[in-house]
Amino acid sequence: MRPLIAGNWKMHGSMAEAAALAGAVREGAAGLPAELLVCPTFLHVASVASLLAGSAVAVGGQDCHAAAKGAHTGDVSAPMLRDAGASHVILGHSERRTDHAETDAAVRAKAEAAAAAGLVPVVCVGETEAERLAGQAEAVVARQLAESLPDGFAGTGAPAGAAGIIAYEPVWAIGTGRTPTEADIGALHGFIRERLAARFGAAGQGMRILYGGSMKPGNAKAILALPNVDGGLVGGASLVAADFLAIARAAG
Ligand code: 13P
């Protein structure tokens, strides 16, 4: 499986900064051993998508509404993202689950809407530090997978036909500079693979599972070499084109 290195730009950047970052990523994208995806804010999706049109770098949103349109002030729908040039959308990020009280059921409805609009959903799962210390990491992730993923997630039922993507992001590793041990990452990714295979069969074997949480150029090679780690979802380091591209090079 060809690795995917995805940048989650979160709530960062002016129009000019987003354009500069997209341009620098585009310039360095040729010949890398990974596919690239960048996910700017809603405000920047259209301009970044037009700057990256015709390049090897895909563009995604960071969230979408479950409805295609309607009276939902402040929200953006999956068809709108598609229309603006996105091909992917991150869903159920822990910051959405925390800041906006998103439930597994809400994430599932959004993933259905994304697939119906032809977007590839990137659904985030991951335990808090308290849950890990209580020995609950696998149980939490199992529940999130069972309840956040729609039945068509493997692509068999989605109009888009593309398999969804999972991002395992331990909440306590996000933006902290701390990561699980390589053994713990490998164990969780193996566990996720088992759950996907049990639910989706052969399609689950082929679905990408990204690791996210303080991935940097210095630790990317070791993490990306682990079995069942099919790429990364990168926050802070994706805001520096040289670091993002170095992580992509480490996937080879
Ligand atoms: P950091 O890479 O900044 O830890 O963020 C990870 C993340 O949340 C990506 O979605």
Describe this structure in words.
This protein has 252 residues and is α/β, with parallel strands linked by helices. The chain is globular and about 45 Å long. The protein has an eight-stranded parallel β-barrel with strand order 1-2-3-4-5-6-7-8, surrounded by seven helices. The chain contains eleven helices and eight strands. The model has no long low-confidence stretch (mean pLDDT 96). 1,3-dihydroxyacetonephosphate (13P) binds next to strand 8.
- The radius of gyration over CA amounts to 17 Å
How much helicity do the residues have? 40-55%
Strand order of the largest sheet: 1-2-3-4-5-6-7-8
- Heterogens: 1,3-dihydroxyacetonephosphate
The string of secondary-structure elements, in order, is: EHEHEHEHHEHHEHHEHEH
**What fraction strand?**
5-15%
Biggest sheet overview:
8 strands, parallel, barrel
Number of continuous helical runs: 11
Please tell me the overall pLDDT: 96
Structural class by secondary-structure content: alpha/beta
How many extended strands? 8
Report, as a whole number of angstroms, the end-to-end distance: 12 Å
Oligomer: single chain
Shape category: globular
Unreliable stretches: none
